Amino acid sequence: MAIDLGKIGMKVEDVKCGIQGSGIAPATMGEMIKDNIGDEGNLQLFKISLNKKILGNCTFSFRICIEGTDSGYSYQLSDRLAKDQLWATLKNQQYLPDVELIVKDKAFPAHKAILAARSQVFADELKKKQVVKGGLLQIRIKTGVEQSTLVKFLHFVYTGEPIGTLADEELLQLADQYQLTTLVYLCQHALKKIEALQMANLRERLNDNVEIMSFSKITPEEETKIFFDRTTPTFRCTSLLKKSENGQSKCVMQYQNESIFIAYYTEEKEINSQLINQGYITKSVLIHFTCAKHRNFGLQVEDVYCGMPKSDKLGYSKWMKMESKNFHKNAELLHFAVKVVLNFTTKPQENFQFLVNFDIKTISTIGNYYYETMDDKWPTDLWAAATKKTFTDVEILVGTLKLMEAHRIILCARSPVLNASLNNNSNTEKAIVTFESEFDVEIVKLFLKFLYTGSLKATDGVHQLSKLATMYQVETLKNVCQLLNRVPDVEELTNCLI
Fold first, then answer.
1. CATH topology for the 74-183 domain
2. Most buried residue, 271, 299, 492, 496, by CB count within 10 Å?
3. 363 has which bridge partners?
4. Any coiled-coil ranges, and where (predicted)?
């Protein structure tokens, strides 16, 4: 049962449950069924029927898939330092704030470049404002919100992430006033109350078959432990395997334009031919799953599960742990397999196919670079402000060629070297940052985009990018490039293939 996850912008998408065996993870896991207790409110109930009575002690293992309550609030790969550094500029009043937000006669220094990038309302208002005494623009917040609410609002503006509860009417008013649509939807969902009907439905579901349950009651000996680690993302990918493709490998997931997960199946033997008259033959099938090049992106594979969705005639609800003969977490190449039973059609005109889902649990080995839920618009808003020259105050040159314009606040926050360089310019000047002509202009643009978005979407020009990251002390990018530049261990790779 999940209660009030919506207050932090989350909801449960699905839950898997299994009994822990002798291994690190259960050999099989079942999909728990979401009970229909009503869509309103922040209450979710998932149930599963056990196929045998539990005797003695055992450990249940759950895998809970969490998603954002709004489609615009999702998992994005990003440099954690990008958010922390931008928030520090506001929290510590670094890098010369140029605007004040006035709430109940208290001034909150901020930066017009970030406010305007994240809100068109702020952008339009700031263009009309005149500089007042002290060289700052002033915006008076008229909704009469508490100062603590403004801090939560600004945290979402600067980082794309909420801080504290989203069930805040004043925060919703601010988000609506400044047209932060993702924050509006998150607050609206968080403010939904658990209705009496939902509670009644929940009690009814929990009391179903209470007499039967009393004979096999499961009582935990200790409190349930929930582990959340942002450095252990689980990727879910789907592959449609066709009978005509027996033994043929196909990519099931690309990561930054590289094929890192590959799947195929091989038929083994016929098990049961009694269904021939119904048009089906039961066969044993091996599903294969290969991981390659994942280490180049700082991913260490922990385990792989596969399963198929239910249907009337085919598929099953079990998720099975795929096994590897020579599993080594740091291996260049990993191969997993699992045996399943399927019903194949005997009709030659039909090309039998089946959908397979894979869940791949990994560990991100690059410090501060992992998947987190955030406002999808946060990185794109900031970068768009640079490309559209919205309140830009820095010119970027490569040699003598002007590449683009940028924002002093972001460059200073993200690079100590650029911060030292730009501090030599007064706040009113349009400063100039010059990159040596030895660097390709597109690589410099990739470097700047990483400063703004905290994410690297391409792997081109890694050597130059690594040099820039080192030169300007952008630690996370430097670590990313080091892995992309790494040379695979040929001996280890050969051993994997033998």
1. Potassium Channel Kv1.1; Chain A (3.30.710)
2. 299
3. 300
4. none
